[in-house]
Amino acid sequence: MGGEKEETSSKPAFDVGAASELVGKLRGAFASGKTRSYQWRESQLKGLLKMTEEHEQEIADALHSDLAKPELESYIYEAAMLKNSCRLALKELKRWMVPEKAKTSLTTFPSSAEIVPEPLGVVLIISAWNYPYLLSLDPVVGAIAAGNALVLKPSEIAPATSSLLAKLMGEYLDTSCIRVVEGAVPETTALLEQKWDKIFYTGNGKIGRIIMAAAAKHLTPVALELGGKSPVVVDSGIDLKVSCRRIIAGKWGCNNGQACISPDYVITTREHAPKVVDALKQELEKFYGKNPLESKDLSRIVNSNHFFRLSKLLDDDKVSGKVVHGGEKDQSKLRIAPTLLLDVPRDALIMQEEIFGPLLPILTVDKIEDSFDVINSGMKPLAAYLFTNNKKLREEFVMSVSAGGLVVNDTTVHLAILSLPFGGVGESGIGAYHGKFSFDAFSHKKAVVYRGFMGDAAIRYPPYTKMKLRLLKALITGNFFAIIRAIFGLSKD
Amino acid sequence: MAPKKGHLPLLFFPASGEVLPEPLGTVLIFSSWNFPISLALDPVIGAVAAGNTVVLKPSELAPACSSFLAETLPRYLDNRAVKVVTGGPNLGEQLLEQKWDKIFFTGSPQVGRIVMSAAARHLTPVTLELGGKCPTIVDTLSSTSEIKITVKRIAGGKWGPCSGQACIGIDYLLVEKKFCTMLVDLLMKTIRRFYGEGAKNMKNMCKIINKHQFERLQNLLKDPAVAASIVYGGSVDEERLLIEPTILLDPPLDAEIMTEEIFGPLLPIITLNNIQESIEFINARPKPLAMYVFTKDESFKQQLLQETSSGSVTFNDVMVQFICDSLPFGGVGQSGFGRYHGKYSFDAFSHEKAVMRRGFFPEIEPRYPPWNDFKLKFIRLAYNFDYLGLLLLMLGLKRN
């Protein structure tokens, strides 16, 4: 039986035996063919949609409990995005399920070929704590659309959302094929020992490595949605007010900086930096008032571990004197005010790891073009942003900066474009999803060739002669004249 | 290489979205010994087309081809960008310690696991082209000419490519009992015609690559129950490392010859009462790289497609899916993941970067805090693409 929390010794823990049993049951359900029908997939997607619509307030409450997430953020980034995901899948599913015709060539004439999408089987989805509703269910939408059975393991660091998911999914979805396992390291380890047909993980690179190593034992393909330091390059000669508002919306407006595609740090020219700082300060005050620690429009830091991690970044000697705005903390409420740091050294702690919090370092360069070298000298991030009106700079950015995704003149909004693949590269991850990419992520595209018994060419079979070789060579290159020459024995060799 | 456009909702107007392919960086390609030129260079084509720099490590078990590649490639390709390194498992291990932007591996599942575990340390994406036991289902056919063609295709497809040492080679047959005798008779005649008779007189067949593989194959036949099931062939030429095409009828299913990929010129034939049983037989075993089916029954074809899983399926022929460049070539489950050939090779070595461009105007105020009821209503309507509702809200006419 899945779904048991790690509790005192009176209740059985979800161990390797329990995980194995659960996977066995799901394999049986998958083998029965249940999840493959369009009707089943449609019913489950509708179930997710209904579940989100009917329990919106409970979802917002759980998110508030876990993260003090403002209602609007809960609405846009969790509920609305998930609903859009479901709606798109429902609208397009029939089309996605249709085999794709493929061209065949002269060498296999006569034949026809197609590519048939099929479910991988039983998949494991492990999600993160920062958008615990969306990041759990968005991959589930893909897995269901592709016809798989699945286990979802939500993050224990967002416990209210985790138990809400377990409860609601048990009520709205087909539990013979879709299960939630709650828990922490022991439960996740037990799950990772099993053989899955795919593992989809959202989180950090350290755990991503552990997951991929576990998957390697069973040759299980993985999708890893990780993170990185997403830079924002701010050019001069732009609408600074609008730019800063968009930076703020992407940074503090997204779970107070605790988002994988949040702007991590800003790069601008030495000359332009003071203006950028001023504009940011102005807009920050408009958004969050003079006492941002009290603002209801900011999430809190998720737990004390992360609070201390972020505090340490501010306590680092290398950044003392660099704070130009904010820096206030309230440990009892796990709140840190929006903080700007100017001219931090590249070897400061705050520039070594993904910040994932409300601190925004601003690096300065001589020429704005130098910022691309700064970005490319680090690990490839999940996203990179540029604010500019300079067409040449824009195109250079797009061509030379490698990241999961790029946005020019805004931040984070590419997340909502379901026709764009969402995923990382290098340290920021493997694989992509959203929209049809989610369906593809959980499918095997099976190549199928149909041949008949006519048109059997003796040239394929032994005994192999020079003549057959000539003709075969000519056929494969498709060179009409070579074919004629070969048939009539007129070839040079 | 041209970017693909994406559709944007009106909410973000004006904006443009596209997917731009870019090279991953520096990639490592391991190739295998059975098709040592094509399985080495085919992935290189994809890597180079996608704009990467490449290190190719061909298999040391095919040393002549390996040296050929090491000596010849530098004369034709840009030496600074494409390098060939030769060596054995030690070299492989050393290469795997490095951080690559992609690793492309063709070979066995056992080594595939090692490659993926090493890649995990650096979060390097991998493509694993592995193998498996590719079943060939032969339905009972009635037309003589069709039966002849079927047998020719099986004989050509099993022993032609590298004496059965091929990842998509036919591993075993599944046949109905009533059809078996006729099939085996015809198969034996065809084998004699194509390949001669007896290991000493063989023609048109490759040798077994080395003594180790030769002994492995011989050992498969050592089990007395397996040896007893041989109905044709079985002779070997130890000096020239040749094994004659060998047919076994219903060897024990738990013998190694039926649990491990054969990768050689031995062909077990498993008989069934009804060809429908082949579905259950195949599903009880790891997903193969390819499945071949000879049948004229259209509903059986659909049933197989729906109820079994494999890298690919070919109806009424063998091996040909390999030369269709518009078809993805790759496995699923134990036979691997990832794919290549044609554009899929380009994609295998590319990162599809999402790019969105926006203007500064117009601005949507409700995005920004401080939030209030109006802004919340606005955002709800916007996310539902309820533009009429939005208009009414702005005009103060929306009741909610």
Automatic annotation (TrEMBL), chain A:
PROSITE patterns: ALDEHYDE_DEHYDR_GLU. PANTHER family: ALDEHYDE DEHYDROGENASE (PTHR43570), ALDEHYDE DEHYDROGENASE TYPE III, ISOFORM Q (PTHR43570:SF16). The lineage of its organism: Eukaryota, Viridiplantae, Streptophyta, Embryophyta, Tracheophyta. Keywords: NAD, Oxidoreductase. SUPFAM superfamilies: ALDH-like. It catalyses: an aldehyde + NAD(+) + H2O = a carboxylate + NADH + 2 H(+). It comes from Punica granatum (Pomegranate). The keyword Zinc does not apply. This is Aldehyde dehydrogenase. GO terms for molecular function: aldehyde dehydrogenase (NAD+) activity. GO terms for cellular component: cytoplasm. Belongs to the aldehyde dehydrogenase family. CDD domains: ALDH_F3FHI.
UniProtKB/TrEMBL annotation, chain B:
The active site is at residues 129, 167. InterPro entries: Ald_DH/histidinol_DH, Ald_DH_C, Ald_DH_N, Aldehyde_DH_dom, Aldehyde_DH_NAD(P). The keyword rRNA-binding does not apply. Gene3D superfamilies: Aldehyde Dehydrogenase, Chain A, domain 1, Aldehyde Dehydrogenase, Chain A, domain 2. GO terms for molecular function: aldehyde dehydrogenase (NAD+) activity. Residues 20-355 form the Aldehyde dehydrogenase domain. One of its GO terms (biological process) is aldehyde metabolic process. Belongs to the aldehyde dehydrogenase family. This is Aldehyde dehydrogenase. The lineage of its organism: Eukaryota, Viridiplantae, Streptophyta, Embryophyta, Tracheophyta.
